[in-house]
Write a structure and sequence with these properties.
This protein has 62 residues and is mostly helical. It has helices at residues 2-6, 12-34, 41-50, 54-61. The protein contains four helices and no strands.
Length: 62
């Protein structure tokens, strides 16, 4: 629970961003798998990371 563990209350904008981020990353993961995972994992991680909002990275890094 983000509120309990991080003391963070989600804003409405963050919840919208989070919803779309989850769906986008799921789609990217599916595409990577369906394409046979030929893209190196390091590149896939970079692509995924580029699609994570800064506020979410900050919550995960603390």
């Amino acid at each position: 629970n983000v509120k309990t563990c991080k003391g963070h209350e989600w804003t409405e904008e963050e919840l919208v961003d989070l919803d779309y981020t989850i769906k986008a990353l799921a789609s990217l993961t599916t595409k990577w798998g369906r394409d046979g995972m030929v893209v190196p994992v390091e590149k896939a991680v970079q692509i995924f990371s580029d699609h994570i909002p800064p506020f979410l990275k900050a919550l995960c890094d603390t």
